[in-house]
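My main concern about presentation is that the manuscript never shows what a single data entry looks like. For the editor and my fellow referees, an illustration may be useful. For illustration, here is how one protein appears when written out as sequence plus structure tokens:

***
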Amino acid sequence: MSTSRRKWFVPLGDLLGRILEEALPKDREFRSRLAAEAFVRLAGPVVAGHCRVLGLDGDTLRVSVSTPRWQEELQRMGGGYLRRVNDELPRPLRLAAIRFSCEQKKREP
């Protein structure tokens, strides 16, 4: 292959990444919905039943959980969920973190 042809060669992955960056909407609601759907699907029905996705805070997906025990467990597993969710999202929409918080309702006396 001649050097003149090599300078025009662009790896397909790079080309698709550029196209996606330009084509995908960057609005917060769209990105939040995609990330939430991916998390719920990957978490499965049992875990998702104890979670409520609150939305995005910058590049962080915020998830409320039902109890401190679930929060502790999901924080331990958080890196795995982050990798799996990011594998589902197009590169320009990927997350930096998933934060789990527990917002238990206080009992009325």
Summary: The chain has a mean pLDDT of 84.
